[in-house]
Design goal:
Blueprint: H1 23-47, H2 50-79, E1 81-86, H3 88-104, H4 116-132, H5 199-218, E2 223-228, E3 233-236, H6 247-259, E4 268-276, E5 279-287, E6 292-297, H7 301-337, H8 352-407, H9 414-445, E7 454-457, H10 458-475, E8 478-483, E9 490-493, H11 495-512, E10 517-526, E11 529-537, H12 543-548, H13 562-565, H14 570-580, E12 584-590, E13 593-601
Parallel strand pairs: 8-10
Antiparallel strand pairs: 1-6, 2-3, 2-5, 4-5, 7-9, 10-11, 11-13, 12-13
InterPro entries: HAMP_dom (IPR003660), HATPase_C_sf (IPR036890), HATPase_dom (IPR003594), His_kinase_dom (IPR005467), HisK_dim/P_dom (IPR003661), HisK_dim/P_sf (IPR036097), HssS/ArlS-like (IPR050398), Sig_transdc_His_kin-like_C (IPR004358)
Region (Disordered): 106-208
Biased composition (Acidic residues): 117-127
Length: 604
């Protein structure tokens, strides 16, 4: 790296680049970190649960289908628009015009100046007149029949038109001026008109009333009539031909029109009780209400069908990957069921399906291991039967041969007969030793042999054993080199069984070492264990051969028999004994030597 090149420090997270200690910033930073952790935790939970994944997928598809339904409804609804005609606003317009006429022109306003007692007496007289008219109760003032709208006061004075005693030339329905300020004859309930009323104001009011009626007749096509309580028309507009009106029928029709649906085109009447020419009367405004036309989007089944199709397609598309994985697992299970134990399924997720794939692979691996162990056991059993049969038959054949010679007295001298007996006896001993080894190995393999463990100093036990093998080694032209530590190493072992292990190892070293040669016996302490090593010269062995050395009846040289190579159970028995002591035994081969290791746990 050149001098110009500099090592760039790792970039810090965005939130760590601001060394602020301001409380709001720290609070915001904590909230962001909390949301990040919450998101990560939720993501992990979703990744590990197929149920949550399906729920989120369903919610997403449902939301998209609802959105599509809204869009398609707007599109298809625009095509299938329906026309809606509503006359309610027209009725309200006619009613509003009637109320405006009653409030503005048929009810004169009261002035604050003048005799208040006169006003009150006028009201009382008017009410009394209403109660005494034909023995009937007057219609309540201030409410429209069926409409509930405000109406003019009953005590308001309205001059009678010219036909009924109004001044000539006055506009019908407009109050006329009274220059004397006194009640007119034949009008007992007429309120007192305040003196000093300006004739110019009366003329202006008459003109406004006339213009208002003309406007309503011309532009709104309304008919305006005023009737007394009997129904006799006392005022009418130019387009109203009636001279008599059935008040009860008008009220009934108006109520029925208000109560039924407002989508039918029919004449509508709005009426208000008023005081006209100091008499109770009814203002009736009739006309055809103007329709209000609106367009409503219609319903179309294609919107529902299309949104349902979108939901199904999206759900199928988003769950297709999981379904393919399920099919892959099922296919892998079928392949495994055919006996192909080398097949493995791919773990593609962390949810229940991924867990199922892992369990399947573990099951297949364990099943394959067990089948291989059973095959190996079957092979070993066959080899055991073959080797035992061979090893037992060979000495037994020799024993039977020499016994037959003795039985047939096929010998020349007694010394020769004694030699036959000696050979038969030695073969019998070898046969017994082979049977004993086989029996002991079987018991050790099945853990049927009880161990009598006790604490002993392994140094002393091995020293006594090695003293016995010094002379035997010298007879075989071998040198036994010992390397034992001075430290007393205490172990808990079954002494007899463990001596059998080292006797087998030393016996194999003496038997298979080239003569003359050297056998090395060493021991070291390693943490809480003691390791004993026995080494001798030997041909190089492969790793597989080293692993099979401790199998039953395994021989590196297949040409060896029980005559030259022993029973083939010594190392297998040694491994069973060591493993029963919770130790381990193994072999290594390097530089033309073979090393056997025994590792035992030190007593605490």
């Amino acid at each position: 790296m050149s001098k110009k090149e500099k090592i760039k420090p790792p970039r810090k997270p965005v939130l760590d680049r601001f060394p602020f200690t301001w409380f709001p910033f720290n609070l915001l930073r904590g909230m962001i970190l909390f949301l990040q952790d919450l998101y990560k935790m939720a993501r992990v939970h979703v990744q590990r649960s197929v149920r949550l994944q399906l729920m989120l997928t369903f919610a997403f598809c449902f939301g998209v289908s609802l959105t599509f339904y809204g869009i398609s409804s707007a599109l298809f609804g625009a095509v299938n628009k329906s026309t809606v005609i509503d006359y309610s606003q027209g009725m309200e317009s006619i009613d509003s015009e009637a109320r405006s006429l009653a409030d503005r022109f048929l009810t004169p306003s009261r002035h604050s100046s003048g005799n208040e007692t006169s006003d009150e007496s006028t009201d009382d007289d008017s009410n009394e007149a209403g109660r005494s008219e034909s023995g009937q109760a007057a219609v309540p003032q201030g409410s429209a029949a069926g409409g509930g709208m405000p109406t003019p006061n009953a005590g308001t004075a309205v001059p009678v038109p010219g036909a009924n005693g109004q001044e000539p030339g006055s506009v019908p329905g407009v109050p006329a001026a009274n220059p004397q300020g006194a009640p007119q004859p034949n009008q007992p309930n007429q309120p007192n008109i305040r003196q000093g009323e300006n004739k110019q104001e009366d003329a202006e009011r008459r003109k406004n009333f006339e213009n208002t009626v003309k406007r309503l007749v011309t532009y709104n096509k309304l008919k305006i009539v005023i009737t007394d309580l009997e129904g006799k028309v006392v005022f009418r507009s130019e387009n109203a031909p009636e001279t008599y009106v059935d008040v009860h029928s008008v009220i009934r029709n108006a109520m029925e029109t208000r109560n039924r649906e407002s989508d039918s085109r029919s004449e509508f009447s709005s009426f208000y009780p008023v005081t006209y020419n100091n008499q109770k009367a009814y203002l009736i405004v009739s006309g055809i209400p103007q329709p209000n036309i609106s367009y409503h989007k219609g319903e179309n089944p294609l919107s529902i069908l299309a949104s349902l199709a979108v939901f199904i397609f999206l759900f199928y598309f988003l769950t297709q990957r999981k379904m393919r994985y399920i099919e892959e697992l099922a296919s892998g299970l079928r392949i495994i069921a055919t006996g192909n134990l080398d097949h493995r399924v791919v773990e593609r997720s962390q949810d229940e399906l991924g867990s199922l794939a892992r369990d399947m692979n573990f099951m297949v691996t364990d099943l394959q291991r067990r089948i291989e162990e059973e095959r190996r056991a079957e092979q070993l059993k066959n080899e055991l039967i073959t080797n035992v049969s061979h090893d037992l038959r060979t000495p037994l054949t020799l024993i039977m041969g020499y016994l037959r010679l003795l039985h047939d007295k096929n010998f020349e001298t007694p010394e020769q007969a004694a030699g036959y007996v000696s050979i038969a006896y030695s073969k019998s001993e070898k046969l017994k030793g082979l049977i004993d080894d086989l029996f002991e190995f079987t018991k050790l393999s099945n853990h049927d042999v009880p161990l009598h463990k006790k604490g002993v100093v392994i140094n002393e036990v091995l020293e006594q054993l090695l003293e016995e093998y010094v002379t035997l080694s010298e007879e075989q032209q071998l040198t036994l080199i010992r390397s034992l530590p001075q430290e007393r190493l205490l172990v808990r072992i079954d002494v007899d069984k463990m001596i059998r292990v080292f006797e087998n190892l030393l016996g194999n070293a003496i038997k298979y070492s080239p003569k003359p040669g050297v056998i090395t016996f060493g021991m070291i302490r390693e943490r809480g264990h003691v390791i004993i090593r026995i080494s001798n010269k030997a041909d190089a062995l492969t790793r597989d051969e080293l692993e099979q050395l401790f199998e039953r009846f395994f021989r590196v040289d297949k040409a060896r028999t029980s005559e030259t190579g022993g029973s083939g159970l010594g190392l297998a028995i040694a491994r069973s004994i060591v493993e029963s002591h919770e130790g381990s035994i193994w072999a290594e081969s390097e530089n033309g030597e073979i090393h056997f290791y025994v590792k035992l746990k030190l007593a605490s």
